[in-house]
Amino acid sequence: MNIKYKNLSTGIKKFLKKREVTSQKTLERFLVPAFENLRPSDKTLREAVEKTWYFIKKRKKILIWGDEDVDGITSTYIMKLLCREAFGIDVRHHIPKRAKEGYGLSRQGIDKAYKNGIDLIITVDTGTSSISEVEYLKKKGMDVIITDHHELKEKLPEALLINPKLNAFGYKYLSGAGVAFKFADCAMRELQEKTTGEWSEDIPEIPALALIGTIIDRVPLLDENRIIFSEGLKCLKKSEKPPFSIISARKNLLKGIIPLASGKEKLTWEFFSARTVEEAEGIYQSLKSKHSLWNKKSRAEFSAIKNELNEGKRVVFKKNLDYKIAGGVTNRAKDYCKKPVFLIYPVGTKIRGEGRSPEGFDLLSVLGEAKELLIDYGGHKCACGFELKKDKIDEFKDKTEPLLKKYKTLRKYDSRLKLIEVNEDLKNLTEKMEPFGNGNPPPVFLIENVIYEKEDKDFFLSQGKIKIKLNDVREMPPPSKKVDAFLEINGRKTILKRWEWAEN
After folding, report:
1. Which of 84, 97, 479, 490 is most deeply packed, by most CB within 10 A?
2. What is the pLDDT of residues 164-206, one digit of tens each?
């Protein structure tokens, strides 16, 4: 790589800092998303692998405990594949129904595991908040390893906890599937002395599953997530297993995997387990049909709460809401308002809630302020879930509505540049930043006091002796020549995204 971090301008470094690039090493990981640039395993992750291997050697019974969303399903499948393909054993798995067991470990599921003689439970994509449940399973004589990626609370379970927000083995915003991938990578390196590139040739489905979980869970496509995306895509195309060949054949990867989030856990699991192309294609078409139906239901449910949102409400209670589409409806509400939103709904005798927020706002801190009204809560700063105590809906609204309304839309741009810095070097840099996505959008730069001109059908910006041609103008051309320009650099394209009046 011929780009030297130390030679970059202050403005470019400021924009890269927002992509968590602050050194030559992080720049190389960002611009060269290859397996060899993965972070090394830490002591805690190696300890978890050693512990698992100990239980395998002793022929103890192991249960993988997942979650019913796609990130949880892909995480579970990664661990199952690791044990089957690398160690030659089949392990059981349990994916609880949230409507019955809630989030994380549950006493109901632990009792079932105990009856089945399980010795070790390994959680994936869940468990960071399961404090009392960990105490309960230990009293029953079972052991547990928690692998998760959700936000940490003040108190943590007394267990071997593998979470990138706590440990140093990986990027702090890995998905649950990303954490499971790092576990698998550590296991193959430690126990079989194979590099990531070597073992992924034998089991390409593991990086492919990590790719799917990473995209579906909408984690930032930065740091190791870029590596999982880039290398996972190669592995997806390399796999000869029917489910993966069906997804890789789709022209648009994102559109291809979105239907996987639309079925019940059982249907999505069956898709990944399909052994023939015909079987996989049949299940995939069923998932696509469910996706269309869920989209239709989600739009209808959103329309039912739209008036309350227009009235300025940010905490909305919706009766008779299908919990399976609650996240989608909340996300639509957030996108519509461009502000943080809580959606509350009943599930049987329980009161559940979903929260969604634009970047830059911490929903978990809001829930923390109202924790005396909650039974449980967790998730991410911009996407979370919670369970509310009965008869506390109005009190919860009164407590959290003012806190949500403190959110202010930021004037969004990555950094200020001079027009002279919008050159081939910058375009080369941004081209290497692709693919753009969540956490890594095309950068926008504020170029102050530039002259806007139109010559025939072409548009230009100039500043002193520097003049550049625009590829596109997204906002109506300014009535004044002198403007502050917000330029989006999208690979090789320079786009005038919007403009403001320039100060004299």
Report:
1. 490
2. 999 999 999 999 999 999 999 999 999 999 999 999 999 999 9
Are residues 280 and 197 both part of a single domain?
A: no
Tokens of 287: 């998932």
Q: Is the CB of residue 260 less than 8 Å from the CB of residue 287?
A: yes
Record the pTM: 0.89
Indicate if 253 and 228 belong to the same structural domain: no
Amino acid found at 250: R
> Could you give the CA distance from residue 10 to residue 26 in angstroms, rounded to a whole number?
17
- Beta-bridge partners for 461: 452, 468
| Segments forming the whole domain that contains residue 463 | 415-501
Which residues, in sequence order, are CB contacts of 468 under 8 Å at separation 6+?
A: 419, 422, 460, 461, 462, 494
Q: Which two tokens stand for residue 21?
A: 């690039």
Residue 409 domain-assigned (yes or no): no
d(CA 446, CA 488): 9
In tens, the pLDDT along 262-319 reads 756 788 999 999 999 999 999 999 999 998 998 899 999 999 999 999 999 999 999 9
Q: What's at 167, amino acid-wise?
A: N
What is the CATH classification number for the domain harbouring 491? 2.40.50
pLDDT of 454: 85
C-alpha to C-alpha distance for 308 and 296, rounded to whole angstroms: 20
Residues 400 and 326 in one domain: yes
Q: Which helix (H) or strand (E) holds 386?
A: strand 383-388
Q: Where are the beta strands (DSSP E) in 61-192?
A: 62-65, 92-94, 120-124, 143-147, 160-162
